[in-house]
């Protein structure tokens, strides 16, 4: 018996395109539509299951509705000379009356009831014109120059010490930079020296007077 023709509509129909760079997860969407008047079961399979994450990878599409399937390519070292051999297959069949155990439904499905569509994966690097202008300018002005500034994180203790040092500098500033305060301090020191000198002279005179009386 001839194989049943796929009733689901796929967008895109033949290729899943992933645009790099591939240093992070790259996601592309696959839209599955059900134009029939019956519910349709589906599942998504791939030849490289460890390289992709598919959400949802199976389910039921109600009659006259559609769903979006996210296909996430995991980070890898991209080689432009290596052609991708990864492929996806969307398998489907009309949903039976009882869909409580989908694992059993797929296991008991007859080959003539199954429909499938295949898609190949295409990896693309972004074109030069697609790169943000700020990156292009940076590469033009400084093609290979290393960054001139480096920012090092510091601990809270270091931050507190920095604040204390700033506080000390702030407290010392008036003593070194304020001429009025410096003059006041000088006058105060001179007044203290004058008092000491007067006391010495007073004691000397007092001693002389006592010495004459004693004689």
Shape: rod-shaped
How helix-rich are the residues, as a percent range? 25-40%
Overall strand count:
9
* Structural class estimated from helices and strands: alpha+beta
Poorly predicted segments: 132-176
Distance between the termini: 153 Å
| Radius of gyration, taken over Cα atoms and rounded to an integer in Å | 43 Å
Major sheet: order of its strands?
2-9-8-4-6
How many helices?
4
What's the overall average pLDDT, rounded? Answer: 77
Which sheet architecture does the biggest sheet show? 5 strands, mixed
N-to-C SSE string, H for helix and E for strand: EEEEEEEEHEHHH
Strand content: 25-35%
Descriptive overview:
- With 215 residues, the protein is of the alpha+beta class.
- The protein contains four helices and nine strands, in the order E-E-E-E-E-E-E-E-H-E-H-H-H.
- A five-stranded mixed β-sheet has the order 2-9-8-4-6, with no helix packed on it. A four-stranded antiparallel β-sheet has the order 1-3-7-5, with no helix packed on it.
- Mean pLDDT is 77; it is low at 132-176.
Describe how the helices and strands are arranged.
Blueprint: E1 9-11, E2 15-19, E3 26-33, E4 40-46, E5 52-55, E6 58-61, E7 66-73, E8 87-94, H1 102-108, E9 115-124, H2 133-141, H3 156-177, H4 179-214
Q: What would you say about this model in short?
A:
The protein has 215 residues and is of the alpha+beta class. The chain contains 4 helices and 9 strands.
What features would you highlight for this structure?
4 helices, 4-stranded antiparallel sheet, 215 residues, single chain, alpha+beta, 34% helix, rod-shaped
